[in-house]
Amino acid sequence: MAKRHTDPLGLHSALEDWMLPVLVAAMSFLAALTIAGALASTSLATQWRNNTAAALTIQVPQPAAPDAANNATRLAAVLRALQTMPGILNPQPLSTGAMNRLLAPWLGADAASLGLPLPAVITATWNGPGAGEAIAPALNAIAPGTLAQSGAQWAAHVTALTASLQTCAAAVLVIVALVGGALVALATRAGLAQRRDTIETIHGLGAQDSGIASLFASRATVLTATGAAAGALLALPVLLWLATLAAPLANPVPPPGAGGGLVNLPDALWAALPCLPLAAALIGWCSAQLTVRGWLRKLA
Q1: Rounded CA separation 48/52 (Å)
Q2: Around Cβ 202, how many Cβ atoms within 10 Å?
């Protein structure tokens, strides 16, 4: 008797306990991975963008030739100038071995043996305002032909890539929400068809549309929230595994005592995962309400 009182329309049999939650769990699993991917790409892009934008590369052609003032070699003069310029940190010329490793894919293991006039390359960190290329005129006056290039262009490319990934993630989440709503609507319509005679009877006796819709919406809310929670829990070990794989990219030199697992997931993701059941419950409630009310209006 208690079951009949709490379930007057028999919705526990009309809306099955397993089909809708399983489908919603799959949607929740996909949503969790999408959110994690968007957050990870944003975090990695921010780190890479900052590191790239601060990188400064100076090329000095004919490094052993005299500088413009004929006081030292062009390489030595440029290095001395860089050490005194504000905003330039740790200027270091690349060694012959480092140059060979960079040029090996194109010129072989020993580029110097080819007799090509290779420039000297100086790496530094730009800590000043604006773009690092602004120092090029001053260096060119010391050693004509010297080029200075910062990572600002690469940073702009990384920013554009991040924006496109975030747009794709938002589109996926919208599609997941729409598919979830459609699943609830289909399940609700199936329940309405199964309990049609009972609903028509109580509706004819004066039952309000809002009351009938609330019964369906409550049942759909429980099922969708349960399925979404299960999907989020199933996604958690996968997210931890992916975070472990991505840890070297996010932090090549981990701090002492740092371990894997939970610490690898960003706080924003921990906050987003509990929101999935809430969002699924809201979608389920709204979709069931709209479906039932639309169906009942046709009875009038």
Answers
A1: 6
A2: 15
